[in-house]
């Protein structure tokens, strides 16, 4: 597994993975820039953001900032979707060891040629995760679940669509920007 990761990921990914691991176990190290997020989000979308774990808010802000650094003229809907791209993870408590396993397994699955986006855009999954296999299946559906949360809250359908496709951006140009910023953050 490690050999596969070394082959497919740049050095910055390992640095970021190490920092994410640290923040996963010590949530107080996460520094979400909620003021920055509130400059882009309002109403129900801001409520959803504020309902996320501080580690996920930290990650969301890093992804949105990376996206803006690479694409300063990115549409506001894309930036808002970047801030909410992992909101589907907030539906259930997300323990530190689960964060590490999920973060490590995604590039490994992608390197093995599995369709990373297949489950992300399908059924949102009504059944909570049970065991490691259940956890990974539950996680794979977080994009669809996040999109449904945004729609259910009365959020922007365009933002919801970008969130639904943030791991499978084929045909969604804005979602590709989110996926690229997310990949190494
Ligand atoms: Fe995601
Ligand atoms: Fe993410």
Overall tally of domains:
1
Question: How far do the termini sit from each other?
Answer: 20 Å
- Cofactors and ligands: fe (ii) ion
Percent helix range: 55-70%
Order of helices and strands: HHHHHHHHHHH
| Main sheet makeup | none
Oligomer designation: single chain
Structural class: mainly alpha
Radius of gyration using CA atoms only: 15 Å
Uncertain regions: pLDDT < 50 for 5+ in a row?
115-119
Q: How much strand content do the residues show?
A: under 5%
Word description of this protein:
With 185 residues, this protein is an all-alpha fold. The chain has one domain. The protein is built from eleven helices and no strands. It has helices at 2-8, 11-25, 34-40, 43-50, 54-70, 76-84, 96-111, 131-140, 142-152, 157-164, 173-183. The longest helix is centred in the middle third of the chain and has 17 residues, at 54-70. The two termini are 20 Å apart. The model is unreliable at 115-119 (pLDDT under 50). Bound molecules: fe (ii) ion (FE2) (2 copies). One fe (ii) ion is lined by residues 59, 63, 85-86, 182.
